[in-house]
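Input record, target 12 of the design panel.
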């Protein structure tokens, strides 16, 4: 299928500016994707889609290119408010099946907490499609062990970005993205 991505990479960035939109642009620039046209898509990693490095992926982008992304973003102009944006990925053991990508945009979450959250969300979505019964009230560590012992989910990953709002009230934006390539 011509529109099905064959490669994906993670990127993230922080931007600050007196205007909200320009802080978003600065965050995209820091992530290396400000020069392309972004189209937000939902949460499916196509079967066989290879995960490549950020540097390899960025070299494949051209100015003005239409690029599909799963994008998380958070903005604030409140001094010291912690912004957080994260992308999680769960890859099934069966290479012929699709994986799941999750995103979270919010406030107050530190890097490790956010990474665990988005990985768990992606793994939970994948697990339910694979027939695993999960108790949402179970601790993440216990669910993670269920994922591993089932043999159905081979690995999870996360790309997260956090930043405290600028102390002088500039708009602060964080982005995290899973970028798809043909």
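The sequence produced for target 12 reads:
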């Amino acid at each position: 299928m011509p529109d099905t991505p064959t490669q994906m990479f993670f990127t993230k960035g922080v931007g600050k500016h007196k205007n909200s939109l320009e802080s978003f642009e600065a965050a995209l620039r820091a992530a290396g994707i400000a020069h392309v046209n972004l189209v937000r898509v939902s949460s499916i990693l196509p079967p066989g889609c290879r995960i490549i490095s950020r540097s390899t992926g960025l070299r494949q982008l051209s100015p003005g290119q239409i690029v599909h992304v799963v994008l998380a973003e958070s903005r604030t102009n409140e001094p010291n408010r912690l912004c957080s944006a994260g992308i999680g990925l769960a890859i099934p053991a069966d290479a012929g099946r699709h994986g799941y990508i999750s995103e979270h945009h919010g406030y107050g979450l530190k890097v490790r907490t956010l990474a665990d959250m988005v990985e768990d969300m992606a793994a939970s979505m994948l697990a339910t499609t694979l027939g695993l019964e999960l108790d949402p009230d179970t601790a993440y560590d216990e669910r993670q062990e269920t994922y591993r012992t089932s043999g159905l989910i081979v690995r999870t990953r996360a790309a997260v970005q956090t930043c405290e709002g600028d102390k002088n009230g500039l708009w602060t934006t964080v982005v995290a993205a899973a970028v798809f390539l043909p």
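The first helix runs from residue 20 to 31.
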